[in-house]
Amino acid sequence: MVRQGTSGKNGSKPKGTPGRQAGRPPLKAVYRRRRLFVGLVLLLVASVALGGFAAVSGAMRSSEQASSTDRNGSDGQAAAKAEATPSASATPSTPATPTCDQTLVTIAASTDKAAYAAGETPLLSLKVTNGGKVACEVNLGTSQMEYTVTSGSDRIFSSVDCQVDSGDLVKTIAPGQSETANFPWQRNRSVPGCGAVSAKPGAGGAYYMFVARLGTKSSSKAVFQLL
After folding, report:
1. Are the beta carbons of 187 and 200 closer than 8 angstroms?
2. What's the pLDDT band for 95 if we cut at 50, 70, 90?
C-alpha cells in the first residue's frame, strides 16, 4: 500500500525555486537585456534626430550662401554695367581752335605820333588782323615779334638784339578782328649780340622808318620824325 503525500526517489518533486519553470533564465538577466535594448533604441533615435538636424542646418547654410552669392553677383553686374555705361550728361569736347592761315593774316606797323619832341618816347605798335572767316589762334609772343627802326640804309635798332628772354603768347582772334602789341622805343641804338653802342640816333627833324615782323610776315614801313 502506497502512502499519499510522501516523496521518494521516484515520486519526489524536482529541486528548484518555487513558481519558476525549469530551464528559464534568471529575471535579473532579462531585465538587463531589456534595459540595454531600450537604451540602444533611444540612442539610435537620438542619432537619427541629430543627423537630420545637422542635414537641415547644412542645407539652410548652403541656401543662405547661394542667396548671398546671387545678390553679390547681381550687385557686381549692376555696378559693372553702370561703370561701362557712359554718362548721358557728359559734355562733348569743344573743337580745338585752328591756327590762323598766314595767307589770311595781315601785319601793320604804326606809331602813336607822327613826330616826337626831344625827350618823348615813341610808341611802336604791331597790329595783326584775322582776314579769315573763322576764329583762329595767333602767337603774339616775343618769340615771334621784332620791332626794327632804320634811317635810310642805317640800321638803328632791333628789339631782338638785347632781348634776354622770349616766350609764346597765343591769342584767339575773331574773323575781321585785330590784336595789337606795343613797344616803347627808348631812342637808342643797338647791334646784334647787344654790344655796347655809344652813338645816339640823330634828332633835329630826322626821319625814321619802323617795320614790324610777326613770324615770317613783315609789315610795310611806318615813318615818324624825331625833332
Report:
1. yes
2. confident
pTM: 0.60
CB 136 within 8 A of CB 99: yes
Asked whether residue 8 carries a pLDDT value surpassing 90, the answer given is no
Cell of 7: 516523496
Q: Which residue pairs, CB below 8 angstroms and at least 24 apart, start in 34-43?
A: none
Residue bearing cell 641804338: 189
Size of the chain in residues: 227
Distance, in Å, from the CA atom of 108 to the CA atom of 179, rounded to the nearest integer, reads: 11
Report d(CA 47, CA 62) in Å as an integer.
Answer: 22
Residues 6+ apart with CB under 8 A from 174: 130, 135
Q: What is the CATH number of domain 102-226?
A: 2.60.40.10
